[in-house]
Amino acid sequence: MPSTPVINLRKGHAVRYNNEVCLVSAFELKTPPRMASYVQMSIRTLSTGKVYNLRMTSNESLESVNLERNPHEFSYKDGDGYHFMHPETFEDVILSENAVGDSKDYLIEGQKYTVQFADGLAIGIELPASVVMQVTEAPEGVKGDSANNVYKAATLETGLVVQVPLFIGPGDKISVKTEDNSYLGRSN
C-alpha cells in the first residue's frame, strides 16, 4: 500500500497504524514560531474503537488504506447491530454500535446512506450534510416570546433533541444539519 505524508491527511481518511485500519477523527497542523511544523491528530481503530493521539512531524508518513463508498439503505437495528441493504444486490451489511457512533441519531429506516468499506469490510457510514426528520415532541411556545429569536427543545423521530423556533410543533418535518445538530428550516 502507498504511504501518505501525514500533512496530506484529513478527517475521515483511513490509514494503517500498528497493523490496524484506523480512521482519522481529528487533524490539526501546528506551526509554532521558530520551530518545525508538526501534525497533531487522533485516529480511531475500527476493530476495537481505541483512540490514538499522535504527534508527528510534517514529513512523516502513514500507510494509506483505500476506502470504498457505496450507497446502502438503512433497514433496521437489532442485537447484532445496524443493518444496511445494498439497493441492487440486496446484500445485508451489519455495522456495530461502535462503527455507527453518533450517526445513529440520523438513521431512519428506508433512507439511503453511504457505507464506507476498507479492505472489504464495512467500517462506518457517511451522513449527508442535512437530514429531514419529523418532530415527535415539542412543548408549546410561550406567548409573548416571539419578539426575539427564542428556541425550544424538540425531540425528533430518532430521539435526537434539537433546538427549534417556537412555531415548530409535533408532526412538522424539519431539516437538521448533521455536522452540529442545528435546525436549518421546515421541510415538506
Automatic annotation (TrEMBL):
Pathway: Protein biosynthesis; polypeptide chain elongation
Record localization: Cytoplasm
BP GO terms, sorted: peptide biosynthetic process
Keyword Protein biosynthesis among UniProt keywords: yes
Major subcellular site: cytoplasm
InterPro entries: Elong-fact-P_C, NA-bd_OB-fold, Rib_uL2_dom2, Transl_elong_fac_P/YeiP, Transl_elong_KOW-like, Transl_elong_P/YeiP_cen, Transl_elong_P/YeiP_CS, Transl_elongation_fac_P
CDD domains named among the record's database cross-references: S1_EF-P_repeat_1 (cd04470), S1_EF-P_repeat_2 (cd05794)
Keywords for this protein: Cytoplasm, Elongation factor, Protein biosynthesis
Domain Elongation factor P C-terminal span(s) in chain numbering: 131-186
GO molecular function, one term: translation elongation factor activity
Source taxon at top rank: Bacteria
Pfam family, one: EFP_N
Translation elongation factor P/YeiP central domain sequence ranges: 69-123
GO cellular component: a single term: cytosol
Family: Belongs to the elongation factor P family.
Name of the protein in question: Elongation factor P
